[in-house]
Amino acid sequence: MQDCIFCEIANRRIETEILFEDDDIIAFSDINPIAPVHVLFIPKKHIESVSDISKEDKMLMGNMIFQAKEMAVRLGIDKNGYKLLFRTGQDGGQEIPHIHLHLIGGAKLYEEIRPV
Ligand code: 5GP
Ligand code: ZN
Description:
The protein is α+β, with helices and mostly antiparallel strands and 116 residues long.
């Protein structure tokens, strides 16, 4: 997908330190971390949001969650816990229109959910 920054990262057109990669997904650190650990998992293929996943993507989405769990273990944040987050669409606050799973942890996380 043209003009998609996460496609650019997945295709290595933007230099980024890759923390995990397999045939279908990659993981890299968030450029603006909100916690000591803040990693993004993305599919290599362009899918805009969770609203756009199809039946064929079920394994892919499960793999993203599985690999995020594995990364949490590798980074030593699994014992205390962490947050996995998919923002979806406008009300969900999604800024980058290419599915990404946030793995956030390494500190006690607070959250505020209220209408703006
Ligand atoms: P969203 O709000 O869409 O769920 O999250 C987008 C995330 O992508 C944000 O946490 C933001 O900091 C991160 N981000 C945006 N542009 C880049 C980039 O070019 N490189 C990296 N590594 N992260 C990015
Ligand atoms: Zn994309």
